[in-house]
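subagent[fold] <- orchestrator: predict structure for attached chain, return tokens only, no commentary.
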Amino acid sequence: MACSKHFQELFEGMPHSLAGLIVILDGTSAHNMASLLEFMYRGEVHVSQESLSSFLKAAEYLQVCMFCHS
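subagent[fold] -> orchestrator:
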């Protein structure tokens, strides 16, 4: 299972009472975000050669890892 250390730290630090929270992610596109979420939920994703560089940069920015320990 993959996860994002960035998201873990972000959401663990938020009060549970925040409804309608909006998170703005500089450094990634909607397409890369969708691919990263697919990867985190399914464990695999198909990324085109043209998108690979920006996909990997977004994964690095969001600290996505294959096996995260809580």
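orchestrator: received. Logging for downstream: The CA atoms of residues 44 and 56 lie 14 Å apart. The mean pLDDT is 81.
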